[in-house]
Each structure stands twice: as C-alpha cells, then as structure tokens.
Amino acid sequence: MKISQCSAFVAIADTGSFTNAAKTLRVSQSAVSHSIAGLEATLGVALMQRDRGGVRLTEAGRRVLAHARAVLLHAEQMRRVATGSAAESAGVLRIGAAGDVAARLLPRLGAEYRAKMPGGELTLRAGGDRQISDWLRSGAVDLGILGSPRAELPTLPLLREELVLVLPGGHPLAGAAGLGVRQLLAEKFVLPVDGVEPALRTAFRALGREPAVSLRLPDLDELLGLVGRGHGVTVVSAPALPGELPGTLRAVPFAPRLHRSLVLGLRPSVRHTPAVTAFLAAARGLPTAGRMLTAAGPARR
C-alpha cells in the first residue's frame, strides 16, 4: 500500500470523480485509475463504483476512507516534524484554501506578504473546508482560508462576501432585480462543495425550511454548466463569478442581501513567528479585511 494510492482514494472521495481528483493531485487521470486499481488489489475489495451520477463509495470504501485520511495526516506530520520548524523560521508558510479563493486572494496576499517578509514564500494546498480543517489540526498547513468558522480551530474573520443566485436565462425568475428566499423554496439547488451552503441553510431555516440540494461540485465551471443545462440553480460568491457570464445564465442578487464570511484558520500549535505576523498584517491589507481582523482581536476557538 502506497501513500499515493491513499491520496488518490481520498481525492476521489472528496471531489466526486476521477477527473477532479486528477486535477487536485496534478496528475493524469490514468495515474489516479492505476492507483485505485492497485489499492483495491492490495486490499482485495472494491472501494468504489462508477455510475452516471459519478463515483460512489462501496460499504468497504466508506470503512476504509477514515483510515486512508489518517495515513495521509500521519505522513504530513512526519514531514512537518522533519522540515516544518526550519521552513517556518525561514518565512515559508503553508496555506490551505479552496481553488477559487486562492486564485482571487493569494496573488495579492503573496505580494503583500513578501513586501513585509523579504525572501518569504507561500506554498498552497488546494482543498475544501473539511480537508483544510484536517490539515490545520494535523499541522500539514500553517494557515487556512475557510468558508465558515470551526469550533475546534482558532479562527479570525477575514472577508465578508456577497452571495448571488445564478439561474438559467429562461428561468421565470431570471429577470428579477432581486429574489427573496421565500421565492426559492421550490427550487432545486446545485451548490459549490464549500463556503455558501451554511449561509443559505440559515436563511431557509428562518422560514422553517431546508434547501433542496441535489448535487455538490468543487469546480465552478462545471457547476455553471449544469445550471445552464437546466439542472437547477446555484448560489456563489459574487467575486468568484467570471467577469461575463455565458448568455444562457443570469446572476440575481438576494433581497435582502445574503453574505458569507471567510475566516482565517490557524494551526492550533502555530507560533506567532515573524512569518505568521507578516501574513496577518498582509491579510489586514485586503479590502474590508483590515477592519474585521482588527476588531476580532486574538484568534478564537
């Protein structure tokens, strides 16, 4: 059994497909397939089944998944013990973030960080909130940008982002100037894997209801493609939307406005080294973040 096989298995479980797992791991799809075949041969059981809806874990796969995660976490802890302290002292920080958040925030954060910490370096691990939380707890990353606070982790509020609805252009509500949650009670939602669902569920629960979520995807382009083909409506962070939506889609704000709050999670044992202090200072330089971080004070659990 190899760590690469466990990585492929966990990536498929988290992203829902061999294609997305390959993108996450930055390897070919055939390499992912080969890893899964090798792992199943070693264990002597089928771990997953493919169907039209994607990939489903078998009963054995569900039992094995937690152990595969543990293998990866222990491997990261070994690497951390061997190299982490020296890297942190040298200004190397490991950041966990979702792909769309990383693409929007890390270029500016990186520039601000290096201006405050000459020679400093940020290394990115892309993943969902659950993965990032695991990485923070295990010490695999030093800081993580999360879509909502985690009770078991110290966090600081980072950014407040407006959420918008995206509907097919032919949808009866597509021409509205704004939509209230009550108008969406009968809609079927396809949602991003992380970040927006807690805010949406809170808004629905205020009316004594739950949103009907039929599918969750990590890739924004695939999500918008499903909406364009009439498979449901979605909710995304306004800054994450492309500058110009395809003609088959319409973005409509909530009325009243609906927001999500990104938080900065810290590794529980993180020390306030010059590198960490410089990154927090860079985060305060983000639009609207400075006021939130200053008001937040120390990291809280």
Please tell me about this protein's structure.
Residues 289-301 have low confidence and may be disordered. The strands form three sheets. A six-stranded mixed β-sheet has the order 4-3-5-10-6-9, sandwiched between helices. Helix 1 packs across helix 2 (18-25), helix 1 (3-15) crosses helix 3 and helix 9 (274-284) crosses helix 10. It has three domains: 3-71, Orthogonal Bundle (Arc Repressor Mutant, subunit A); 85-158 and 262-296, D-Maltodextrin-Binding Protein, domain 2 (3-Layer(aba) Sandwich), CATH 3.40.190.10; 159-261, D-Maltodextrin-Binding Protein, domain 2 (3-Layer(aba) Sandwich). Helices cover 44% and strands 24% of the residues. With 301 residues, it is an alpha/beta fold.
Which structural traits does this protein have?
301 residues; alpha/beta; Arc Repressor Mutant, subunit A; D-Maltodextrin-Binding Protein, domain 2; 3 domains; 10 strands; 24% strand; globular
Task: Annotate the secondary structure layout.
Layout: H1 3-15, H2 18-25, H3 29-43, E1 48-51, E2 54-57, H4 59-89, E3 92-97, H5 99-116, E4 121-126, H6 129-138, E5 143-146, E6 155-168, E7 188-192, H7 197-205, E8 212-217, H8 220-228, E9 234-237, E10 249-266, H9 274-284, H10 289-296
Parallel strand pairs: 3-4, 3-5, 7-8
Antiparallel strand pairs: 1-2, 5-10, 6-9, 6-10
Helix pairs in contact: 1-2, 1-3, 1-4, 2-3, 5-9, 9-10
